[in-house]
Amino acid sequence: MSEFPEHDKLHRIKDKSQAVGEFIEWMRGRGIEFCLYDEEEDELVPFQDSIEKILASYFGIDPAKLEEEKRQMIRMCQEATSEKKV
Predict the structure, then answer these.
(1) pLDDT tens readout for residues 37-76
(2) Which of 57, 58, 68, 76 has a CA between 20 and 30 Å from the CA of residue 47?
(3) For range 1-8, the mean pLDDT
(4) Is 61 in contact with 6 (CB distance < 8 Å)?
């Protein structure tokens, strides 16, 4: 495993994630929505999470860790660029 485990995980599930995301978009494009049942109100409430959030949750990707890894990658690139200029 590399020093970027969330990106590694994301890379491993890329094809599956793409297919599930396209399916969700296809459903939403036809007016089909996921809903949650609100017991207090005895009604269905549309599930409003973004596709990205749904996929991250389903595949066990931590968005905060993913963002931190991206920032780490940027810092590493900036440091490498600075070293070349010296």
Answers:
(1) 999 999 999 998 999 999 999 999 999 999 999 999 999 9
(2) 68
(3) 88
(4) yes
Residue 79: its H or E element: helix 63-85
Name the residue ranges covered by the structural domains of the chain: 5-85
CA distances from 73 to 7, 60, 69, 83 (A): 11, 21, 6, 15
Strand, coil or helix: 3: coil
pLDDT at 26 over 70: yes
HEC string of 8-68 equals: HHHHHCHHHHHHHHHHHHHHHHCCCCCEEEECCCCEEEECCCCHHHHHHHHHCCCHHHHHH
